[in-house]
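Narrative summary of target 7.
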Amino acid sequence: MLVQYEKRNYSGKEKIWVGAYANLHNLSHWHIDNEIIYAHIGSAIVSINGELYSLEQGESIFCQSGSLHYIKGSENSLLYIFLFDNKPTEEITSAFCLKSPLLQHHYDLDKYFELIKDELKKQSMFYELRTNSLIMYLVSDIFRHEEVVQSVVKNKTILNYKDLLNRIDEAFEYITFSDAANFMGLSDTYFSKLFKNICGMTFSQYLNIVRIEKAIGFLNSEERIPISEIAVKCGYYSIRHFNRMFLQETGYSPKQLPAQFRLDVKPIKTVKDAFDPTLEESRLVY
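Modeled conformation, tokenized:
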């Protein structure tokens, strides 16, 4: 499935990661960690649970645990990312939600970024306590000064959307736009808009990429399955259409696909054995 759960493996007990990305562009994803996105240079469009936010230079967004989101940084942008486990702050972040993820005040995030980055790099005595303390102070400051509401049961539409992604992953061969809209209990028009806002692409684009991912899996398997059979297994009943879509998404024909090829997703060096939604045009600066 394209929209995935992202699991971060931290280096120690601090359960905090910070990084600076140039031209950050990632796929729609979710994780149990909280995330702060700060536009140090340039701007970005951030989607959180289907709502689009324009993040200008000097502004920041707080993305709470479990939220579906993606980020599209502007050209030559530099975004600071703070990612941290929910447990150290759960007394705050599990009991309350921000009314708006776009923060209305500034919290000296340049300073926090440098302090945390320095602690994680040097790993001096008690660095884990210090980084956790910095995050606790920052989060408490944010929730003290922003407008908050008590946490309630997670948005049913978002939960249904996550279930839909599992359904697409299982029924990718034959599921249709109407099937998906009916699964969500939404009109075609509203579903189309909601899906694009959450995912960053249309339903047909998403389904096509899921199908091509499945086709790549079949091609890389030890079984020698004829390409015409793979096309049918992946919902393409015209080999010509399959070849065209395959070339569009991978840059190769099915016969020319390099061994162990993956679509445009790469690992973050500091995160081991974990799904990473970050696309190739992004660059982890430090």
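The CA atoms of residues 59 and 81 lie 12 Å apart.
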